[in-house]
Design a protein that fits this description.
Length: 368
């Protein structure tokens, strides 16, 4: 009898999928990346067209694995194209060390052979490189035989966590305000003229924010920066806590005893506070970042306003490629934390015929 039954996920799998994602990931801070109460709401924002596959243990009838794949419209070399994205790979601890991950990938490719015709990417945090290195040591011939895709490291991605700052004031000559419906035209123009210069920048329809691709995002979540009445920078603050939440399960002994000291320091001088064990981390994510001439000066002014408005949360989250010039905007922001990962091209056809174009790559941290 086959050990695992792999199939497409359906709405009735929601509870089991949520339970799989609740399983904590250990470290100095043990976290649970929850998707309650609707897993599929979090899945819908990852891609415009997507499918989730699951693995069921045939003996226990327990859901023990998941993997999703989808496509979204992005700019590549300033042209509109579809980019494939692999995500939500989860393997139950009881099945880690088995070949379940390979089975999931093979099944997905067998059901969606067209993915070999698209450029595809995946994001993997640095600490998860063990399996990546194992796959990359294999020859193209062996990968073809196993029907396992080749992963090519295309660069470093940084997730930057930065805190609320009470007295962050924007410089003279700039003004900031919340977006309104009448701003959509100039916002779209900025995203197209500047965002299109980056590889993988998503193509959004800001007049269609009721679409599930934008769950819980509205026009009033966008912040606009003007210089001499000209829009020079924008982004949105996306609160996804109603369907994606990060819970602190446990601290290491060292962090457990220093948490109170850390939070006292934060209250006095600012910084990132640590919630109690069992509590959900409160944060918002920067989304649809577009800055005229990719200027870190403009972006820094926007960040200062965002910092001054972010009271009552643990941190603000921003994701950027390490080589993105906008990283310079964080140079003078104190008490930030940086988590590094790598973005990979995923190629199910060897030898690799299509390659991601050169240039600064852009991925939305809120859609990983």
């Amino acid at each position: 009898m086959t050990k695992y039954i792999i199939r497409k996920a359906i709405p009735n799998d929601n509870e089991a999928l949520c339970a799989l994602f609740e399983i904590p990931m250990s470290g100095d801070i043990t976290l649970s990346m929850e998707r309650n109460s609707n897993y599929f709401k979090g899945s819908e924002i990852q891609n415009q067209i997507g499918t989730v596959y699951i693995a069921i243990d045939s003996q226990s009838n327990k859901l023990v694995g998941s993997l999703s794949y989808g496509k979204k419209k992005v700019y590549l070399n300033e042209k509109e194209q579809l980019l494939g994205y692999f995500s939500d790979l989860r393997i139950h601890p009881d099945c880690q060390g088995t070949n379940l991950m390979i089975q999931l990938i093979k099944y997905l490719i067998s059901k969606q052979p067209e993915c070999s015709e698209h450029l595809n990417v995946a994001m993997i945090i640095t600490k998860n490189n063990k399996m990546i290195n194992l796959i990359n040591r294999a020859s193209d011939k062996l990968l073809n035989h196993l029907s396992v895709p080749k992963l090519t490291n295309n660069g470093t991605y940084q997730t930057i966590l930065f805190p609320y700052k009470k007295y962050a004031k924007i410089s003279p000559g700039f003004s900031v305000r919340i977006a309104q419906q009448d701003d959509i035209l100039q916002m779209t123009h900025l995203m197209k003229s500047e965002g299109a210069k980056k590889q993988g920048y998503p193509i959004y329809d800001l007049s269609d924010l009721n679409n599930n691709y934008y769950n819980c995002l509205s026009i009033s979540d966008f912040i606009l920066l003007f210089k001499n009445n000209i829009l020079v920078a924008m982004c949105s603050l996306w609160d996804q806590s109603s369907y994606k939440a990060t819970r602190v399960v446990k601290y290491s002994q060292k962090i457990y005893y220093t948490r109170l000291i850390n939070n006292l320091f934060v209250n006095l001088f600012g910084g990132i506070s640590l919630p109690k064990e069992g509590e959900i981390i409160k944060y918002v994510t920067l989304h649809s970042i577009a800055v005229k001439e990719n200027s870190p000066v403009y972006f820094h002014e926007l960040l200062k306003f965002i910092q001054s408005e972010a009271k009552g949360i643990n941190y603000i989250l921003c994701g950027l490629a390490k080589e993105d010039k906008l990283q310079l905007a964080f140079k003078h922001i104190k008490r930030k934390r940086i988590i590094e990962g790598n973005y990979y091209q995923v190629s199910s056809k060897m030898p690799v015929e299509k390659k991601l174009p050169n240039g600064v790559f852009y991925m939305e941290a809120s859609r990983l």
